[in-house]
């Protein structure tokens, strides 16, 4: 009983600490469809913290599950902030990337497919980073060019892109996003804390620290 009360109080503290940022979240959601900038708790977050696109140790106390779109400007901004925050806690934070390509982005699905074809060769992280770096040029430059930069075998990569055999993995993620009611990206779960949009670096760090403290006390 004490643990459940402590969990509830911690959740309230988290929400209180970050609710002041809600007003600016919608402004930072450029490139995503309109959605409420809502910060909530996700009790079943562990059900969504799955997948092979994992960065960080499996033993980490905090898991950040990110549903994102490679063509979404807000996702790119979030990735930059997330990278800096994660570098502060390399042994305590892991990140799971999950696909949620938005229909309004013409090349988001192809970019997701490109990342999965690179993932087949163990190069997901490099391709992930390059897709965001080339965000303004997606669809204008050849996918094989980005694959070559990521040190991916481009012959195998091109065949993978043509066959579409990785689409089932993307569909698994989009189905999970549908169950969560996701309409905007990025939608992020930091353990059980859920938000949509880009938190400031300071607020993202605050959420991570609070979840670390909670995990250590349980």
Structure described in brief:
With 218 residues, the chain is of the alpha+beta class. 49% of the residues lie in helices and 12% in strands. Helix 1 runs antiparallel to helix 9, helix 4 packs antiparallel against helix 5 and helix 4 packs across helix 7.
Outline the structure in words:
The chain is built from nine helices and six strands. It has 218 residues and is of the alpha+beta class. A six-stranded mixed beta sheet has the order 1-6-5-3-4-2. The longest helix is centred in the N-terminal third of the chain and has 17 residues, at 2-18.
Question: Beta-sheet strand percentage?
Answer: 5-15%
State the secondary-structure class.
alpha+beta
Beta strands, count: 6
- First-residue to last-residue Cα separation: 12 Å
Categorize the overall geometry. Answer: globular
Order of helices and strands: HHEEEHEHHHHHEEH
The biggest sheet amounts to:
6 strands, mixed
Overall pLDDT: 86
Unreliable sequence segments: 1-37
Rg: 17 Å
Please give the share of residues in helix: 40-55%
Structural key phrases:
alpha+beta; 9 helices; globular; disordered N terminus
Can you lay out the helices and strands and say which pair or pack?
Blueprint: H1 2-18, H2 22-25, E1 39-41, E2 54-55, E3 62-68, H3 73-88, E4 93-99, H4 108-119, H5 124-133, H6 143-149, H7 154-163, H8 167-179, E5 187-190, E6 193-196, H9 201-217
Parallel strand pairs: 3-4
Antiparallel strand pairs: 1-6, 2-4, 3-5, 5-6
Helix pairs in contact: 1-9, 4-5, 4-7
């Amino acid at each position: 009983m004490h643990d459940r009360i402590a969990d509830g109080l911690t959740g309230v503290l988290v929400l209180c600490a970050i609710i002041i940022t809600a007003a600016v979240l919608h402004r930072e959601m450029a490139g995503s469809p309109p959605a409420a900038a809502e910060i909530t708790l996700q009790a079943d977050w562990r059900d969504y913290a799955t997948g092979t696109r994992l960065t960080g140790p499996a033993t980490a106390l905090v898991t950040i599950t990110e549903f994102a779109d490679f063509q979404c400007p807000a996702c790119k901004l979030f990735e930059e902030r997330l990278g800096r925050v994660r570098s502060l806690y390399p042994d305590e934070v892991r990140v799971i990337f999950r696909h949620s390509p938005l229909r309004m982005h013409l090349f988001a699905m192809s970019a997701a497919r490109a990342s999965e074809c690179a993932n087949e060769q163990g190069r997901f992280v490099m391709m992930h980073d390059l897709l965001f770096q080339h965000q303004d040029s997606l669809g204008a430059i050849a996918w094989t060019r980005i694959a070559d930069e990521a040190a991916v075998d481009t012959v195998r990569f091109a065949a993978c892109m043509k066959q579409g055999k990785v689409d089932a993995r993307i569909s698994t993620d989009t189905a999970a996003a549908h169950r969560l009611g996701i309409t905007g990206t990025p939608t992020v779960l930091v353990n059980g804390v859920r938000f949509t949009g880009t938190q400031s670096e300071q607020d993202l760090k605050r959420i991570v620290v609070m979840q670390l403290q909670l995990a250590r006390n349980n």
